[in-house]
Amino acid sequence: DMAVPIQQLTRNNSPQERQPIPFTLIQRKEKLGDLLYEKRQYGKAKWACIKMKEKQYEQSICLGFMKLMRYICEQNSSGLYLGITIPIVTIVHTNESQSEITQSVTVAYYLPEMLQDEPPHPFDSDIIIEEWPSTIVYSR
């Protein structure tokens, strides 16, 4: 089911074509010279998002990512490969008391700068385009 999107990705996505999302570095945590994580602030922007709720949150992340890849690889109103921005963000949700991780996750793809004003519409109705305010992200 993912053969075409993966072929599209490998044909059109050499490492130099991956667009890093512009950010301001807030904190960098290292241990013995290895990067553990960075705390970053991203500016206000549009993201393609999908919320998934499978039995295991890892499964939700994988399925959400595959749906986003289909959107990126031509299953959108432009019919074009949109290009990869990195990182793809995963939001792990917690219960109301924030004491437990729930099965629900949101997987989000930052729309490239050239698509921010008029993002292509996804064919998959589970994917929504959201405008996020300035956002803090932990990246590893």
Automatic annotation (TrEMBL):
<dbReference type="InterPro" id="IPR011256">
    <property type="entry name" value="Reg_factor_effector_dom_sf"/>
</dbReference>
<dbReference type="InterPro" id="IPR006917">
    <property type="entry name" value="SOUL_heme-bd"/>
</dbReference>
<protein>
    <submittedName>
        <fullName>HEBP1 protein</fullName>
    </submittedName>
</protein>
<dbReference type="Pfam" id="PF04832">
    <property type="entry name" value="SOUL"/>
</dbReference>
<dbReference type="GO" id="GO:0020037">
    <property type="term" value="F:heme binding"/>
</dbReference>
<comment type="similarity">
    <text>Belongs to the HEBP family.</text>
</comment>
